[in-house]
Specification:
heterodimer; A: mainly beta; four-stranded antiparallel beta sheet; 11 strands; B: mainly beta; five-stranded antiparallel beta sheet; 0% helix; globular
């Protein structure tokens, strides 16, 4: 079974630039999550999709972050414009259905904003 | 205040030794508690998952315990190996409400196993 795929693995950008991350969840997984993990901290949920609908985006900084999952499969997360404090690992995870099933994580995209 | 607190923040042990990591949570009610292992530069990988009615769950050299009364969990690693060097994250989820998932992550314990 293929795991959660994310790209790119690493990205370095200057502040005020824009960046996009891509995630392809495990086939058949209806629920997709984007997390932000700052160095030394646990992951923080940014947004949760159920199929192509947003379930929870309460912690997404909507002035600069956006995400979509148009066809209910893969997803993109965008930051525009980036700030220094956005430097983090962005993790994508998927589950078959909701919270009571195991979440499978991708390897993450390490973003450095300089 | 974080709803899931882990201790110690970091730990260094010799190869072959045992260690125990702690997780205290305030998430209530809760549905299940999981321990994840996160190698440097990788995404977290699930080690164990316990529902509120389970007291212990083992996965090879990893044994997790849960005391729902005191809201504490521990992860015990037996006969540590160099490959155990990683961050260990405790994750608590409440009962599912609709399709929303409120996984609450601890900040992790950074374990280093040395020769």
């Amino acid at each position: 079974e293929a795991g959660v795929a994310q790209s790119p693995r690493y990205k370095i950008i200057e502040k005020r630039q824009s960046v996009a991350f891509w995630c392809n969840p495990i086939s058949g997984h209806a629920t997709l999550y984007w997390y932000q993990q700052i160095l030394g901290q646990g992951p923080k949920l940014l947004i949760q999709f159920q199929n192509n609908g947003v379930v929870d985006d309460s912690q997404l900084p909507k002035d600069r972050f956006s995400a979509e999952r148009l066809k209910g499969v893969d997803s993109t997360l965008k930051i525009q414009p980036a700030k220094l404090e956005d430097s983090a690992v962005y993790l994508c995870a998927s589950t078959i259905q909701g919270a009571n099933t195991e979440a499978f994580f991708g390897q993450g995209t390490r973003l450095t904003v300089v | 205040k974080n709803q899931v607190e882990q201790s110690p923040q970091s730990l260094i042990i010799l190869e072959g030794k045992n260690c125990t990591l702690q997780c205290n949570y305030t998430v209530s009610p809760f549905s299940n508690l999981r321990w994840y292992k996160q190698d440097t530069g990788r995404g977290p990988v699930s080690l164990t998952i316990m529902t509120f009615s389970e007291n212990t769950k083992s996965n090879g050299r990893y044994t997790a315990t849960l005391d729902a009364d005191t809201k504490q969990s521990s992860l015990h690693i037996t006969a540590s190996q160099l490959s155990d060097s990683a961050s260990y994250i405790c994750v608590v989820s409440p009962p599912r409400t609709g399709t929303a998932s409120k996984l609450t992550f601890g900040t992790g314990t950074r374990l280093q196993v040395t020769l």
